Amino acid sequence: MSLRLPPVPFRHISVAQSTTAKPQSSFSRSFIKFSVRNCSSGIDTDNSRKLVMKVKEKLEKEYYSLPTGKNGRDDEELILWFLKDRRFSVDEAISKLSKAIKWRQEFRVSDITEESVRRVAATGKSYLHDSLDVNGRPVLIVVPSKHTPEMFEQSEDERLCVFLLEKALSRLPEGKEEILGIFDLRGFGLKNSDLKFLTFLFDVLYYYYPRR
């Protein structure tokens, strides 16, 4: 699967423009929708299981200092996810997965709580919708017009971003793998632009939560 991104981040799209938008980024009025499509290799279950064990063994030998358990180097579900992302290339999966696990450890993802992000979440600039979409996916809503870069430390915005992604993934119904992100660009202006955070967001989606 691959993430399809808008050609220009957070650019306001008028109603007239949205009707002529290219089909690879789905626009509706002033909304941008992220979507994913399946690009994984058609590999059978037995072979994928063997590759998971191969990655697991190599991680144990070469990255033994990485944590274990859920979202750790021995998490077989996580390993399989990164194998699919890297089209079942063992070396590429190990490279990307080891960096993701290190990032989770350094960012202290497991320590982020709702209370710790309550202040920045109160702006309403990003939240998890109460309902699933028509395809049964959790829905993350982002309202950039409510984001003012100098209002909070960037680390606070980053923690909110990761907290919401983790929360959305925890609500995935059985058999579902994707979440839907909707950017409501109504009222967005130059004062709301934040390239540093946008870079963080794209890095997080590509490197640490791939194919979501």
TrEMBL record:
Q: Where is the CRAL-TRIO domain?
A: 123-212
* Pfam families on file: CRAL_TRIO
Q: What protein name applies here?
A: CRAL-TRIO domain-containing protein
Which organism is this entry from?
Ambrosia artemisiifolia
Lineage of source species: Eukaryota, Viridiplantae, Streptophyta, Embryophyta, Tracheophyta
